[in-house]
Amino acid sequence: MDPEPSGMRSSLADALGHYRPSGGREQADAGRLLELIGTAADPWSRSEPLHVTASALVADARSSRVLLRWHERFGRFQQVGGHADPGESDPLAVALREAREETGLGDLRPAERPGRLRAGDLIHVVVVPVPAGDGERAHEHADLRYLLETGRAAQARAEKAGASVRWMSWDEALELAEEDNLRELLRRARDVLS
User: Which residues make Cβ contacts (< 8 Å) with residue 141, sequence separation at least 6?
Assistant: First the structure.
């Protein structure tokens, strides 16, 4: 077997190694992800109708705020993140790269709270539908989600026009969140940081 796809599966399996899904929906989504890891030649491949993505919620614990990014395609604020670049296989590294690109924050680091969250551990696993658009057919993302922190909140900037980033309180973010999976991510992150 080609070592690269095997390494991709290994990195994903390692990321899921300590993670315990919460509730039936997340258990089912994690099960689909494990099946994908075991059967797809490249679980990150965008040509698969279900493929892996990695994202992160960025927080500034000092000000008790969270950073969300406007996604033009979906017409709403969401966490940062996305697809792996060629050769990438570590979901945390993908989430960090995407978060740095989309926010301009070079100091991002995995959140850690003794007894609650180890640095680099997943905080949420969810399969989300993605409607057709931008030349892509409808598909699904098996999204591995992390919690990242910054000490330089004022340096946040949009990656490009139409993709603004905005600091907001936890309550404001929960109010703006249109999808249950984002509200769940926000609640989990707030619980870890409080």
Answer: 50, 51, 52, 53, 127, 128, 130
DSSP string covering 173-193: HHHH--SHHHHHHHHHHHHHH
pTM summary value: 0.93
Alpha-carbon dihedral 173, 177, 182, 186, rounded to 10 degrees: 20
> For residue 7, what pLDDT is reported?
57
Q: In the chain, what are the domain boundaries?
A: 3-193
Q: What angle do CA 18, 21, 23 make, to 5 degrees?
A: 160
> Token pair of 3, please?
């070592």
Give CATH for domain 3-193: 3.90.79.10
Q: How many CB atoms lie within 10 A of CB 87?
A: 8
Question: 27-36 pLDDT, tens per residue?
Answer: 999 999 999 9
d(CA 96, CA 84): 11
Cβ-contact 103, 165 below 8 angstroms: yes
